[in-house]
Amino acid sequence: MTHEFDGKKYAKASAHQNEWGTRLIAELHLRGNERILDLGCGDGALTSRLALLVPEGEVLGIDASRGMIGAASPKAGSNLRFRRLDINELDFEDEFDVVFSNATLHWVKDHRRLLRNVRRALRPGGRLRFNFAGEGNCSRLCSAINEAMSRDEYRQLFEDFEWPWYMPGPDDYRLLAESSRFGMVRVWGENADRFFPDQAAMIGWIDQPGLVPFLANLSAEAKRSFRNFVVSRMIEETKRENGTCFETFRRINVSASVGR
Ligand SMILES: C[S@@+](CC[C@H](N)C(=O)[O-])C[C@H]1O[C@@H](n2cnc3c(N)ncnc32)[C@H](O)[C@@H]1O
Predict the structure, then answer these.
(1) Cα of 153 from ligand 1 centre, angstroms
(2) Which domain covers residue 81, as residue numbers?
(3) CATH number of the domain to which 65 belongs
(4) What 3-state class would DSSP assign to 154?
(5) What is the number of domains present in the chain?
(6) Total-model pTM
(7) Distance 41 CA to ligand 1 centre (A)
């Protein structure tokens, strides 16, 4: 299942995703001629930075959301393309030197299939670098959402709802990744807990992308009241005296390469 996002709002509410992605890009130590695939490119901010670093290479950003691809497309250029595609349907073979993904793969449930498809997309000597949400990520938001979903007025609306995120612990993910056909695999957890500078910054992130999948099938009135319940619970639970708001951010980092 994929979801629809507002790329313009996301661009304004994604400071922390951008910060993690910037670090990930620096760690790639690109030569400048690589072909790169960015899984879940969102508004394309990181994808276009990758393209600047490979003037003799090429970058393709894929995302399932029309709103995100709409926000990314104006950034396309001579070595940068965007395409609307579900990560679950990757259909590339021997095409990329690097498969990159930041803050996305917790939206994908079947990582065995994902790793198989990424392995197929990579050329000999190619590598992947992922950072996505792991166990314990956004514990305050998850518990506020769970509380809202179990309230009398919403319980029935969520009877057939499928929880949108897969957030494994590093040990479980290591086992999975090591059973894939990569030559060298490294998996490690990371504590990236953070303080939002103020409640407005936190609310921006709750609205886009946080609550999107939970509101998708609600009426306009239920959308508003469910969202307001979660926002006020989050302010109660996370706001400090100095106005900042605390949330847990736990990440899974993965790097792996394909033999030549
Ligand atoms: C939090 S955003 C991250 C965007 C960008 N990588 C960044 O770091 O700013 C997650 C993105 O993953 C995309 N996404 C989630 N599930 C997807 C899927 N199955 N196929 C393609 N894109 C997906 C969403 O549309 C969204 O743009």
Answers:
(1) 30
(2) 7-257
(3) 3.40.50.150
(4) helix
(5) 1
(6) 0.94
(7) 6
Residue nearest to atom 25 of ligand 1 (CA): 65
Instruction: State pLDDT tens for residues 3-51.
Output: 887 888 888 878 889 999 999 999 999 999 999 999 999 999 999 999 9
Q: List beta partners, residue 239.
A: 245
Is 24 within 8 Å of 128 (Cβ atoms)?
Answer: no
pLDDT, average across residues 201-222? 92
Q: What is the pLDDT of residues 235-256, one digit of tens each?
A: 999 999 999 999 999 999 999 9
Task: Evaluate the CA torsion angle 167, 169, 174, 175 in order and state its sign.
Answer: negative
Question: Among candidates 47, 33, 136, which has minimal Cα distance to 100?
Answer: 47
Residue 129 lies in a domain: yes
Q: For the chain, give me the number of helices (H) and strands (E)?
A: 11, 9
- For residue 68, tell me if it sits in a domain: yes
The residue written with tokens 């509380």 in the block is 147
Distance CA 123, CA 94 (A): 4
Ligand 1 pocket mutation, candidates 104, 108, 211, criterion most atoms within 8 A of CB: 104
Instruction: Tell which atom from ligand 1 comes closest to the C-alpha of 88.
Output: 19
Q: Which residue has the tokens 């619970």?
A: 233
Ligand 1 pocket, Cβ-based, cut-off 6 angstroms: 2, 5, 14, 17-18, 21, 40-42, 46, 63-65, 68, 86-88, 102-104, 107-108, 209
Atom 14, ligand 1: which residue's CA is nearest? 40
Residue 23 falls inside a structural domain: yes
Q: Is residue 1 part of a domain?
A: no
